[in-house]
Design a protein that fits this description.
Strand content: 15-25%
Helix content: 40-55%
Oligomer: single chain
Number of helices: 11
Number of strands: 9
Length: about 280
């Protein structure tokens, strides 16, 4: 649990958590300022009523029955980790200052709205650091446009600089907290399992929204072969992730590839568990 005197940083994803911990250590404040990580990707999976037990159970069951991992993470640990993190947030002392780290992605912006809903009845000072905005303001390169898809793509030395420049930002106002709360109510009333960030908002889309994108990337990789042949699924997933302008995580893309195998779009060689165990090709 969090002590009253501590500063709490809430982040979304293990990569962000690791980088921020390094940044705090370099600043010499890792003992006074703690990092709490939602090890999750909020752009995918159901979030219907996620603030309540029924919504949490639905999300846990969805991942457990659809996503695969070599360590059976979704079967064994995902649910426990999610509930533990949610419980810590709900019991944060009101004297604790909270920093929310989020870039312009449906993953992190959905997470922000979820956390602010959980903290709705608390009087904590909550400071939102928009890492996309901060990155462009501090590290803009005139001849190259780069925008990290998530905070986890920003290296520790740059996160450190972002924190030093933004740690004195004003807390989120009561009006803005109310706005985030209302936005959470809207998106958590929907049954979609895939969300994108578009025009400054989180939008729910159909689960198969990127299936054609996946198919076209597979066609592109086939065109690079001398003869159309099986390719490792890791090659296709990497190609898709490398060209997506949304942060969805590779496990969702794997899930959709397995769907396309099941509906006959892809032929398969191997066992469709984790990526390295099978190869695919578009059915002729």
């Amino acid at each position: 649990m969090i002590n009253k005197s501590e500063v709490l940083h809430i982040v979304f994803g293990q990569s962000t958590s690791g980088s921020l911990k390094i940044s705090l250590r370099e600043l010499g404040i890792e003992n006074e300022e703690k990092v709490l990580c939602f090890s999750d990707i909020f752009s995918v999976g159901p979030i219907w009523k996620l603030h309540g037990e029924v919504g949490v159970k639905q999300r846990i069951d969805w991942f457990r029955t659809r996503f695969l991992s070599e360590e059976d993470y979704y079967e064994k640990d995902y649910g426990k980790d999610f509930i533990k993190t949610k419980d810590i947030i709900c019991h944060v002392p009101e004297e604790t200052t909270i920093f929310l780290w989020a870039g312009d992605s449906s993953h992190e912006q959905t997470g922000v709205r979820y956390v602010l809903y959980l903290l709705n009845n608390k009087r904590n000072n909550i400071i939102l650091i928009n890492t996309t905005k901060a990155y462009h303001e501090q590290f803009k390169v005139s001849n190259r446009v780069y925008s990290p898809l998530s905070t986890g793509e920003i290296p520790p030395e740059k996160l450190k600089s972002i924190y030093e420049k933004n740690k004195t930002n004003n807390p989120i106002s009561i009006e803005d907290r109310r706005k985030f709360y209302q936005e959470w109510e809207l998106i958590a009333d929907a049954q979609d399992v895939l969300r994108i960030w578009d025009n400054g908002e989180v939008h729910g889309v159909d689960e198969d929204f990127y299936d054609l994108f996946i198919i076209n990337k597979a066609r592109k990789l086939h065109n690079q072969q001398k003869n159309r042949d099986f390719m490792k699924s890791t090659r296709l997933v990497g190609e898709v992730i490398g060209h997506l302008e949304q942060y969805l995580g590779d496990e969702f893309i794997q899930y959709r590839v397995r769907h396309l195998i099941n509906n006959g779009t892809f032929d398969i060689e191997g066992v469709p568990t984790t990526m390295r165990f099978y190869s695919i090709k578009l059915r002729s």
